[in-house]
Amino acid sequence: xxxxxxxxxxxxxxxxxxxxxxxxxxxxxxxxxxxxxxxxxxxxxxxxxxxxxxxxxxxxxxxxxxxxxxxxxxxxxxxxxxxxxxxxxxxxxxxxxxxxxxxxxxxxxxxxxxxxxxxxxxxxxxxxxxxxxxxxxxxxxxxxxxxxxxxxxxxxxxxxxxxxxxxxxxxxxxxxxxxxxxxxxxxxxxx
Length: 191
What we know:
Blueprint: E1 10-16, E2 26-29, E3 40-41, E4 51-68, E5 73-85, H1 87-93, H2 102-111, H3 115-124, E6 127-139, E7 147-159, E8 162-167, E9 174-177, E10 188-190
Antiparallel strand pairs: 1-4, 2-3, 2-4, 4-7, 5-6, 6-10, 7-8, 7-9
C-alpha cells in the first residue's frame, strides 16, 4: 500500500517600512520604438518643443515575502492615496474607462499620437488625490528573492521643457517589481 504525501505550502507577507527600502524608478519611451531607447531615470533632462510619452512604474509599498513550498501564492492588501496629475484626463483622449490598463493608453499613443489633444490636456491637467484599496496575490519564487514592491504604471509626459507624471492607480495597471526596478520573478495578480 502506498501513501500519498501532500506538499506543504504556506507563506506570509510583511510590509517593509518605506525608509528601509531603496527604490529605483525608470521610464521607457513609448514611441517610436521603446526597445531602441535607453532607460532613463525619473528626472532626466528633456528638450523643448518636443512631446514625448514614457511608461514607467511608480513603486508604492514594499513587502517581504516568506513562503514554504514552490509555487506558493500569498494574498496581500495595499491601501493608501496618491497625489498625481489626473490620469483620467489622459484617458479621455482615447475614450478609455478609468479602470482600464495604462498599457492600452500606451498602445493607442504608439499607433496614433494625438499630440494636439495631449498638448491641451497637459496644459489643463491638475493634480488630484486618488485613493486605492487593492487586494492581490503574489507567488513565491525559487531565486531567493524575498523583497518586492507593489505599484502602478506611471505615464510620464515631457512637453515644452516641462514634465508631468500621471500615476494610474487601478488594478489593471498594478504590478510587482524588485526595489531596483527589475521584474519580480514570480506571479502577481490583483484580485
